[in-house]
Predict the structure.
Amino acid sequence: MTKQISIPGKRSRIRWLPQDNSLLKYICLAPAVIYDSIFFLLPLVFLVWIGFWSVENYRAVPGFSLANYSDIFSQFFVKSRYAYAIAQSLWVAITTTALGILLCYPFAMALMFLVPERLQRLLLVLAITPFWTSYILRLYAWQTILNNNGLLNTLLIQLKWVEQPVTIMFTQWGTRIGLLHYLAPIIILILYLVLRNTDRSLLGAARNLGATQWQTFWRVILPLSKPGIVYSAVFGLIISLGDVLSGIILGGGTGQSVLGKFPLFSTVILNEYAASTNLPRTSALATILIGIMMIILVSGLKLTESES
Amino acid sequence: MNPLSAAKPQSNPSLQTGVPLTENAIAATAHDLEIRGVSKQFGSLMVLNNINLSVKAGEFIAIMGPSGCGKTTLLRIIAGLEGMTSGEIRLQGKDITHLPVHRRNTPMVWQSFALFPHLNVQQNITFGLTLIPHNRADVKRKVQEVAKMMHLETMLNRPISQLSGGQKQRVAIARALITEPKILLLDEPMSALDPHLRVRMQGELKRLQQTLDISFIYVTHNQNEAFSMADRVVVMNQGNIDQVGTPTEIYSRPATHFVAEFVGNNNLFDGEVVSVSEKTVTVSCPQGRMQALWHEQPHQVGDRVTVVVPAERLSLASAGTPGENTINATLRGFEFMGSQVIYFLETDTGYEVRMIRQEALDQSLSIPINSKLQLSWKIQDTILLGEQIQ
C-alpha cells in the first residue's frame, strides 16, 4: 500500500496559483520571456558582442578583441574627447530632468489636490496626450515656435518685451525644450500616481498636529513622494541621455554650454555610425552609454529599495 | 431655526447670576469644550443639525451612532479638519470656530492611526513639537515622559512598519499627547485592533484619561466601548443628538425610538394608550395589553406609544404573577453565548421577540423548539416612549 505524502515546501502557498511544475505556469510566463528575449535581450547582447569585433579591409570581423575599447579610452580626453561628450550629455540630462521634475511636481500636486476628483482623470489624459503624437513631428512644430522669426519671437517683439529675437533654436535650450516636452507626460504620470497613493489622512494628521500647509508639504508630502521623484529622475536621465533627435533638430547638433563646446554623446555615436564604417567601434561606444544608463537605473532602484 | 439664537440664553450665565465674571472664566471652570448650534450641510443633505454639547473638564465623552450619523464629521469639525455651515465651538472658553486647524491643539487619534511611515517612532511622537521653535533637551525629556507613559521606551528607534497594531495605537496616542492638549479626540481608535486587544486597551485608555485628567471625546459605533469607558454617552442619529446621558441612563431610559433600538437588546412594541390610572398606564398592542409605570412624560388615552422591554428583563412566566406583563410567543431558536443564552421567539402576530437569560446551556436545551411559551416581565421594567415626531 502506498501512502500519499505531500511536501508542503514544494507547493505554492496560494492554492489557485499554478503549482511549481505545472504547464500553466510556463504558458503564462512564455510571452514575457519570449518578448523580452527577442526585443530587448537579444539586440543588447548582439550590440555588446559586436563591440568586441574588429575591422579588417573595411569589414567587421567577428572575434574577441578589446581594441575598440582601448582605442576609445585612449581618445577619452584627447582627439575625439569622448569624456567631454559624456559630460555634456550628463549635463543636459541632469539639468533637463531637474527642470522637468521642478515643473511637473507642482502640476501633479495641483492635479491631485486642487482639481475635483471627477476631473482628475480627464486632465491627466490631456496632460499625457502629447506622448501619443509623433516625436519628430513635435520637434518640427517646436522649430516653428522657437525660430528667430517664429511664433514666440514674433509675440515677444509684438509685445515689445524684446527688441531682437531671442535665439533658442540650435542652442542647448532648444534641446532641453524638446526633451522636456517628451518627458513631461511621463514625469507627471509618475508623480501623480505616487501622490495619489499617499494616505490622505496623513496630511490631515500633520495639520492636526500643528503643521502649516507648507510644513505639511516639506515634512510629509515631499518625503513620501521621494520614490516618485527618484523614478522620474531615472526615466528622465535615461531618456535624455539616449535621445539624439532633440539635440539635432532643436539643438542643431551643436553643444555650447558652461562646460564648453562639446557635442552630446548620443550625437557622437550617431555621427560615428554615419561617417565611418567601423561598426564595432560604434557598438563599443553605444555599450558605454548603456553602461552609464545601467548605473543610473540600478542606483535609482537601490535608492527606492532602502525606502521600503 | 437659527441655531445661534437657540444657543444665546445659555451663553450669558453671568447676566443671570449677576456675578461680574467674564464669560471666559465661567467657561474655563465649567466646560472644556462647548459646541453650540453646530450645523453642517452638504448640498441639501443635513449632515449635522444644530448640535449642542458641553464637555466638562476631565470628562470622557463617547459619541455613538451608526455609520453615517455624523459622529466623525462632528469630531473633524471640532479638530478644524472640516468646516461647518453654522454654529460655534469654544475650547476652554476661547472661541475656536474660525481658528485654523494647525493652531487649535486638538489632536486626534485616527481610525487608521495615520502614523507617518517615513519617520520612526520617536520622530512620529515628536512631530508636533518640532514644528515650532523648540529646545532639544525639552523635546527629549517630553518624549521620554510620554514614551514611559505609553510603554514605548524600548521601541523609539523602530520604524513604523515594524510595529504591531497595539503598538501603533500607543504611538498614535503618544504623538497626540506630547503637545499637552486639553482635549483628546479619538476616532474609532479600536476598530483596527483585534477583539482581544480591544478589551485590554479599553481599560488602559480609561486609566490614561483619569491619570491625565483631560477630556476625551471618543467616537465609536461600538456600544461596549462607549459604555465601558465613557462618563457620558452621546447617541447620534441622522445628524441629530438623540440622547445624552450616563451609560446607565442611556441603557435604562432610552429617550427615543432610535436609542431604544440602537442600544441594548430591547424589544419594541407599538401600541395605543387605553387607560391611565394613578400609577400605571395601560397600552394596547397587537401583542396584547401591557402596563407601565408613570414616568416624567404624561400620557393620555389615545396616545400612540412604543413599549420598550429589555431582553434581559424577560423571563418565562410562572402562572400569572400579579404586577407583571405577559405575552405569548413560540420559541424559534436560541443562541448560546457562554454566560448567557439568547432566545429567539415569535409572537402570534409574527413579531420577533428576544429574551436573554443567564442560564446554563443544558437547561435551555430542555425546551423543545416551536413550543409555545408565556413570557413575563415586571411592570416597572417597562419603558414607554411617546410617538416620535420626525
